[in-house]
Request: fold
Amino acid sequence: QVQLVESGGGLVQPGGSLRLSCGASGFAFSDYPLSWYHQVPGKERERVARISSRGSTTYVDSVKGRFTISRDNSKNTVYLQMNSLKPEDTAQYYCHVRWQGNDYWGQGTQVTVSS
Reply:
């Protein structure tokens, strides 16, 4: 079955950096686009970044120039490099893939940006 496992979250000061990782299994990883979403309590989950199977990337405006999504097909892993972090980036971050018409999510990893 499809599994997504995120890691790399934590507490960081404003202006700091974190790199999130998402290990995937159960599907042909290199054939599918992958995304990172974030969610804060009381709000809908929002897509932060997406990478296509060919490596094309898109970002929500609020993270452009600060976040970078990448993938390593040899490791079945997608990454989110987050630089110049702001308090408003504080959220639970989720990895996502849509496979055979169904949405799959990891368990999430918490990112907290605070001094």
